[in-house]
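Moderator note: this is an archived Q&A kept for reference. The question asked for a predicted structure of one protein chain; the sequence and the answer are reproduced below.
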Amino acid sequence: MLHRIIFGSLCCVALAVPSCLLPNKKPAENDAVQAKLALMDVDEAFAETCTAKGLKDAYLNFIDSNGVMLRTDALPLAGADAVDYIIGLQDTGFVMSWKPTEAHIAESGELGYTYGIYKIVPSVADTVLYGNYVTIWKKQNDGKWKFILQSNNEGIGSDEP
C-alpha cells in the first residue's frame, strides 16, 4: 500500500514538473495586438521617410512590385505604371505627413491595413491641407511589409482635426 502511494505521488510529480518547465504560450489575442502595433510602426516609418526624404523616396521604398495607387480624378495605377508615376513625381513643393489612427491584421498574418489622417504643407502657400488615407499592406517573404493598395481622400478641411 505504501508503495502505491509513493508510486502515485512520484507519477504526479513526474507529470507536473515538465509542464512547469514549458514556456508560457501567449494567447492569440496578445499576438494579434503585437502584430497590429507592428503594422502601425511600419506605417509610421513610411510617414517618417516621407517627411524626411520626400514622397517619392518613401513610396518607392514601401510599394510592393504589384502595388496599386488610387488617385483623385484619375484611373488607378498598378505595378510598373505606379512605380513609373512615382519616379516622375515632383515632391519638392510640399511636405506630406500622416499618422495612422488604426490598423487591422488578417488572421493569416499576411495582409493588413492602416488608416488615418494626412497633412500636406505646401512650401509656397500659407495653408495646411488635411485628408484621410487607407493603406493595404502585404507581408513579404522576408517579413517586411509593403503596401499593395494606397488611397487618399482629400478635403476634410484646412483646420487641424
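Archived answer notes: The domain at 28-154 is CATH 3.10.450.50 (Nuclear Transport Factor 2; Chain: A,).
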